[in-house]
């Protein structure tokens, strides 16, 4: 963030360090952050407190938090235009969550699809899993955010954030900016290669499910060549009848920035083998330079610590100010 950017609209987004980042995280979120970063005043967070809503190995969580931040940079996040930081380094996120909890009906949270999906997989459901969208609302509104670029799965949480802002502002006076969601045209919902009816997820450890940003080319190629397709032998965007082929076309379209029409023209008369081969080439070509930059930066662990500290120090005053205004409006500060 530079001074002359302060007139630009603010963008905020984040990713949980809950596994190895996937091509879904890249196409649904990071690629668009990078493409639009010059137009906004950006803050990108590694949301480690969110990752704690399901069980994590403490050492792995610490290491993945640094890995995600390094991947932001390796994918092209430019510190001239963006601050990056770790959520737990700014305590205002947790403090504002408590205040927002007091205006958020439990029924709003129980309706969230992600809560329903993730709680179905747990034997014992932590309160944090239910409260996840309130923490997400706090993340966003602490920084007077105008736009939140995310994949389609997060749209419902953004709607909830807006409901919380509207309720808080009507109860306690104008306190928070009402944020808007930004969803990419292509790549907003990348599906699992093994099961193209389900979202590709970084926390899944199923073989052949995801393409991870740090997978070696051999692994990427193998996963794509084994991706589930169908017996229609027709290359078309048809999510109902041909979910697997549509998913491969979607990945190809999003990664190459081509139109649907241009993609279909390219594969006119071709078979699934050619489609998979070209998707693999495009994915590998995109990820190779990202992996190279990642490994160069990861060689010096102090580098990312310094960047994360500077990021948090730079934006903490924004968060503390907005928290103070909320506390004052609620009657707990002078
Ligand atoms: N499959 C996907 N297609 C497009 N966008 C996706 N995103 C995630 N999966 C896809 C986007 O990536 C960002 C990071 O999301 P997150 O880490 O906060 O959690 P998530 O949405 O629940 O992502 P994952 O990868 O599925 O994580 P786990 O497995 O831990 O739940 C968001 O912008 C999201 O939309």
Descriptive notes:
By secondary structure, this protein is mainly α. The chain folds into 2 domains: 216 residues, Rossmann fold (3-Layer(aba) Sandwich); 79 residues, Tyrosyl-Transfer RNA Synthetase. The protein has 13 helices and 5 strands. Helix 4 packs parallel to helix 13 and helix 7 packs across helix 8. The protein is globular and about 70 Å long. It binds adenosine-5'-tetraphosphate. The site of adenosine-5'-tetraphosphate has 22 residues, from helix 1.
Strand line-up of the largest beta sheet: 1-2-3
Report Rg.
Answer: 20 Å
Q: How would you characterize the largest beta sheet?
A: 3 strands, parallel
Mean pLDDT: 96
Strand content is 5-15%
Q: What distance lies between the first and last C-alpha atoms, to the nearest angstrom? A: 31 Å
Secondary-structure element pattern, one letter each: EHEHHEHHHHEHEHHHHH
Bound small-molecule species: adenosine-5'-tetraphosphate
The CATH class label of the largest domain is: Alpha Beta
What are the low-pLDDT stretches, counting only 5+ consecutive residues below 50?
Answer: none
Task: Please tell me the CATH architecture of the largest domain by its name.
Answer: 3-Layer(aba) Sandwich
Q: Residue share in helices?
A: 40-55%
- CATH superfamily membership of the largest domain: HUPs
How many β-strand stretches?
5
Query: Pairing-aware structural class of the strands and helices?
Result: mainly alpha
CATH topology call of the largest domain: Rossmann fold
């Amino acid at each position: 963030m530079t001074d002359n950017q302060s007139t630009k609209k603010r963008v905020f987004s984040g990713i949980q360090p809950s596994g190895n980042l996937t091509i879904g995280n890249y196409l649904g979120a990071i690629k668009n952050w990078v493409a639009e970063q010059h137009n906004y005043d950006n803050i990108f967070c590694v949301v480690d407190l969110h990752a704690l809503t399901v069980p994590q190995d403490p050492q792995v969580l610490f290491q993945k938090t640094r890995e995600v931040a390094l991947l932001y940079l390796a994918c092209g996040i430019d510190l001239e235009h963006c601050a990056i930081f770790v959520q737990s380094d700014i305590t205002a996120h947790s403090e504002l969550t408590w205040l927002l909890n007091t205006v958020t009906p439990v029924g709003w949270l129980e309706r969230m699809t992600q809560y329903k999906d993730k709680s179905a997989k747990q034997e014992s459901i932590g309160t944090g899993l239910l409260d996840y969208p309130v923490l997400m609302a706090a993340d966003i509104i602490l920084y007077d955010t105008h736009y939140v670029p995310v994949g389609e799965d997060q749209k419902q949480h953004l709607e909830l954030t807006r409901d919380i802002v509207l309720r808080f502002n009507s109860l306690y006076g104008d306190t928070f900016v009402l944020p808007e969601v930004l969803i990419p045209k292509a790549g907003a919902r990348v599906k699992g290669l093994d099961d193209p009816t389900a979202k590709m997820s970084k926390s899944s450890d199923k073989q052949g499910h995801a393409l991870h940003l740090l997978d070696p080319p051999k692994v990427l190629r193998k996963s794509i060549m084994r991706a589930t397709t169908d017996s229609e032998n027709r290359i078309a965007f048809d999510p109902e009848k041909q979910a697997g082929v549509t998913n491969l076309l979607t990945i190809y379209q999003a990664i190459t920035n081509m139109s649907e029409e241009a993609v279909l023209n390219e594969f006119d008369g071709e078979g699934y083998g050619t489609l998979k081969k070209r998707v693999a080439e495009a994915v590998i070509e995109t990820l190779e330079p990202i992996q190279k930059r990642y490994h160069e930066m990861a060689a010096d662990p102090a580098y990312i610590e310094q960047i994360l500290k500077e990021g948090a120090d730079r934006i903490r005053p924004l968060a503390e100010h907005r928290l103070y205004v909320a506390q004052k409006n609620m009657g707990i500060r002078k």
